[in-house]
Amino acid sequence: MRGGAALAILLAATLAAVPVSHAAHASTLRVSPVGLDLPPGQNAATLNLFNDDSAPLNVQVRVFRWSQRDGKDVLEPATGVVVSPPIAKVAPGAARTVRVVRLDPKLPERQEAYRLIVDELPPPLGEGARSVTLLMRHSIPLFFAASGDRAKIEWRLIQSEGGPALLASNTGARHLRIANLRIRDATGAVLAERKGLVGYALPGSKMTWPTGAFQAAPGLRLTADTDAGPIDAPLPGD
After folding, report:
1. 153-234 — its CATH code?
2. Domain covering 6-144: architecture
């Protein structure tokens, strides 16, 4: 499963159609926490599934190894991390706990990144059912830390096929979560901006994000909010 749009599926919906549809019903599957960032030596965690609906929900949880190649996210089925149970039934108004376990007891050489894909499964179709159900999908980032890891990012503005893009090269051993990104000129004026979550720079990887077109200027700088604190860095270009 390749995930160029993997970071954009924190909350995606798919349609399960029935022969004749007269109404739409959106389920209310919630997941907590929305991210798992485990410290060195912790190889197990729990994920809580909440059903705010008036009907039972069947939920599937899968684990994918998360990497970044050629500036894009890639998801592949994981074998080193398991969830139990992988399929759960959550009663109306109730919660269910899913256990997540990394099988290798040794510390990783650098932080390992995964995605937990939590899917609501289609309900059985009853006779005469005449509705469309919106099925929920959550994508939960999961990290297992190495000892003393930290991100080390080099930023660069490049020209891609779609226009200007920001290249993040992470030579460190930990991810960096980037949000509220701004490119500024030497006077501090904002030339380009991406509000909210931009994405993650995984350890030992390169990632790119489009910035949108803007007028080039000398002395460009990048400012952003990250899980390691705010950054303000020079931004060289090609």
Report:
1. 2.60.40
2. Sandwich (2.60)
